[in-house]
Amino acid sequence: MALSSTARLPAAKPGDPAKPAKSAKRPGGLRRRLAPYGFLAPFFGLFAAFGLFPLLYTAWVSLHRVELQTSDRMDWLGFQNYTRLLSDPFFWNALRNTFTIGVLSTVPQLLMALGLAHLLNYKLRGRTFFRVAMLMPYATSVAAATLVFAQLFGRDYGLINWVLNSVGLNPIDWQANTWASQIGVSAIVTWRWTGYNALIYLAGMQSIPGELYESAAVDGASRWQQFRHVTIPGLRPTIVFTVVVSTIGATQLFGEPLLYEGNSGGGISHQYQTLGLYLYEQGWTFFHLGRAAAVAWVMFLLIVLLALLNAAIAARRNRTDR
């Protein structure tokens, strides 16, 4: 007679630990684990094709002499494009102009955006209309906005000089003077981006708990004190975000200075030529694609350094507040 399967098993001794039963593998487990990567694959594919590859190829081109007329010919130079770039006074002039225009446009822009968001945070009639109106400059084409401002800042028939002349002041050459031309370009950037940042600040303000304002009001804090001690600390991450994004935008500034007078030189004496215009001039005016690629990589590294600097300042501020 054949023994049963139960008779073949040794008897379990008392006190022996019970062995956990092996869990059966669920069908499709591997497919379920790989599904998130499949959903992310299109993004990484597009990023590799249109983001990572151009970035790496630009770095490779920056190490060669490449001319626009003979773009299929590449002569190895190593870091000569970078050393020549650092010895070019026009590069340092463009870097200085980029910094100056960035400060002249970013600081007033964010301060006005913060004030407008604070006003829109209160219960006003027609708040929806004002919020939509804030986005109108951002939705306007940069070409249309720049051409209109170029007419406003015209030397002979501009509205700004007409107002100055009507109050007894001398007219200003807003395109030839260094500081005046940089203020004119900064005014375009400020007009376009103030409303956009104001709506970002408004969204951040609405996430601050109302109990904090009520407690501050009970303690006798005025609206200005509530703004300083409740709104500003609550908006600190949002402020850091807008500073970083505005810094990146100022470093890449191109359309406004290009269309302000209509040339890539940034004025007669390059008085408002930014790094973006300098890159365009090297690549599409002088046809030096290798030097233009080197400028692009210098801009990229500069943006990374500025973003890391802003992050370090924000992290240090958060540590001191704890």
Can you offer a commentary on this structure?
The protein is mainly α and 322 residues long. The longest helix has 33 residues. It is globular, with a radius of gyration of 30 Å. The N and C termini lie far apart (80 Å). The protein has a two-stranded antiparallel sheet with strand order 1-2. It has a single domain, classed as MetI-like fold. It has 14 helices and two strands; from the N terminus they run H-H-E-E-H-H-H-H-H-H-H-H-H-H-H-H. It holds the Pfam family BPD_transp_1. It is a multi-pass membrane protein.
Q: Report the principal-axis shape.
A: globular
* CATH topology category name: MetI-like fold
Binned, the helix content reads 55-70%
Class computed from helices, strands and strand pairing: mainly alpha
> How many beta-strand runs?
2
Number of domains: 1
State mean pLDDT (0 to 100 scale): 87
CATH C-level label: Mainly Alpha
Q: Distance between termini?
A: 80 Å
Pfam families: BPD_transp_1
Keywords: Cell membrane, Membrane, Transmembrane, Transmembrane helix, Transport
Region (Disordered): 1-27
Transmembrane segments: 34-57, 99-120, 132-153, 294-315
Summarize the entry for a quick read:
This protein has 322 residues and is mainly alpha-helical. It has 14 helices and 2 strands.
Secondary structure elements and pairings:
Blueprint: H1 5-8, H2 29-61, E1 64-65, E2 75-76, H3 80-86, H4 89-120, H5 127-139, H6 142-152, H7 159-166, H8 178-206, H9 210-218, H10 223-234, H11 236-251, H12 255-261, H13 275-285, H14 289-321
Antiparallel strand pairs: 1-2
Helix pairs in contact: 2-14, 4-8, 4-11, 5-8, 6-8, 6-12, 9-10, 11-14, 13-14
